[in-house]
């Protein structure tokens, strides 16, 4: 006898045994007893059971189990499973109900397009509002979060930009612009090492992205600059002698209140010296060299330029000294004494690491950490 056939016989025997139990426990009326006896005989005939054969009955019996006990166990198990699956079913139903419709997605795309146009117009607050409306309609679109992250960065809200960029990457880990947005936000927060990591991950997904390559170079340069400046920054407050200093230990307030510096500025502006300095090819070459190599001009380079020497002469109080003063300054430069902090206040200023950092940011031409140099790539999505 095959296993399925035997199992069918055992199940039939279980039914017969349950009917016997129902009669024994008076679960049915007297008329019902007669009906059950007929039912037992019909079941026995259908499944070829010999209820008079004690050996067969013993082999097929379910005892000590019975169908009613099996059924009770089944209903208890189902009750437990039903209780545990009810929240999941409710969640599934809720999720299904909250799933955006095609109309919702179309409206969300319209809000995104509106946000992109607002970013082009530099209306970042309005752009953020437009992207938020898109997200409220469709919350599973990585591009919506990525674009809002870029708008947050442009408006200076870098912490929110980080949150949105990470959310975009949770939705789509292959969204390369998510890493670009994350790198931009981290750069804005001054977390240059983390920004480098984000840009590298983005370039793994999009190796030919020129904007991200440029952003990575900027982040690497800034990281190297911060590492190189850290010892100087630590000593700058002691050198400045002022607790009110800012910009890495540089007392900018004292600098701008320095009468000599203000006199220098007045002389230069009155005599066209500033315009002459900025139009000087040597100065332009220094700026171009710095932009291409990152190498800050030395004091010797700066002091050997006649216009810069004239600025130094004016600042040190020798601006009224005529040609003799000019010749003396050039002679000092030639002999290497132009960089002396004791004889030239400008040299002292140029040797201040915080001031040199200001000069570096000026020569970069991007105003420091502006997002324009970080290759955000606009709102191309």
Short overview:
The protein is mainly alpha-helical.
Explain what this protein looks like in three dimensions.
- With 381 residues, this protein is mainly alpha-helical.
- It has 3 domains: 1-68, Immunoglobulin FC, subunit C (Single alpha-helices involved in coiled-coils or other helix-helix interfaces); 104-223, Tetratricopeptide repeat domain (Serine Threonine Protein Phosphatase 5, Tetratricopeptide repeat), CATH 1.25.40; 252-351, no CATH class.
- The protein contains 20 helices and no strands.
- The protein has helices at 3-24, 30-46, 54-60, 67-98, 102-120, 124-137, 142-154, 158-171, 176-188, 192-205, 210-240, 252-256, 259-271, 273-279, 281-293, 299-303, 306-315, 322-334, 345-350, 353-364.
- Mean pLDDT is 72; it is low at 93-97, 233-251, 315-345 and 365-377.
- TPR repeats lie at residues 108-141, 142-175, 176-209.
């Amino acid at each position: 006898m095959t296993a399925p056939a035997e199992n069918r016989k055992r199940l039939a025997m279980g039914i017969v045994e349950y009917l016997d139990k129902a009669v024994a426990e008076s679960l049915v009326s007297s008329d019902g007893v007669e009906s059950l006896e007929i039912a037992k005989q019909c079941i026995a005939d259908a499944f070829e059971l010999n209820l008079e054969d004690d050996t067969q009955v013993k082999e097929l019996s379910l005892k000590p189990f019975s169908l009613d006990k099996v059924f009770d166990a089944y209903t208890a198990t189902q009750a437990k499973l039903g209780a545990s699956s009810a929240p999941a079913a409710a969640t599934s139903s809720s999720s299904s109900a909250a799933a955006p419709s095609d109309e919702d997605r179309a409206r969300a795309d319209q809000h995104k397009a509106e946000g992109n146009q607002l970013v082009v117009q530099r209306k970042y607050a309005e752009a953020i509002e437009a992207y938020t409306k898109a997200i409220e309609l469709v919350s599973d679109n990585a591009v919506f979060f990525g674009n809002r992250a870029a708008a947050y960065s442009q408006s200076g809200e870098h912490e929110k930009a980080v949150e949105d960029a990470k959310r975009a990457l949770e939705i789509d880990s292959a969204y390369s612009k998510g890493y670009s947005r994350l790198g931009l936000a981290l750069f804005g927060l001054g977390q240059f090492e983390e920004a480098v990591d984000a840009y590298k991950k983005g370039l793994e997904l999009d190796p030919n992205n020129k904007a991200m390559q440029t952003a990575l170079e900027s982040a690497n340069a800034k990281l190297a600059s911060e590492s190189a400046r850290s010892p100087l920054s630590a000593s700058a407050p002691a050198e400045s002698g002022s607790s009110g200093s800012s910009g890495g230990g540089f007392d900018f307030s004292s600098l701008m209140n320095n009468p000599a510096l203000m006199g220098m500025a007045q002389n230069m502006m009155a005599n066209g010296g500033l315009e002459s300095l900025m139009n000087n090819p040597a100065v332009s070459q220094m700026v171009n060299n710095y932009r291409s190599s990152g190498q800050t001009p030395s004091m010797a380079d700066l002091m050997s330029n006649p216009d810069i020497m004239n600025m130094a002469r004016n600042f040190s109080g020798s601006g009224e000294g005529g040609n003799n003063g000019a010749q003396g300054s050039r002679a000092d430069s030639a002999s290497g004494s132009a960089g002396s902090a004791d004889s030239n206040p400008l040299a002292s200023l140029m040797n201040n690491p915080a001031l040199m950092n200001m000069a570096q940011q000026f020569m970069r031409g991007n105003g420091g950490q502006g997002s324009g140099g970080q290759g955000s790539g606009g709102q191309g999505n």
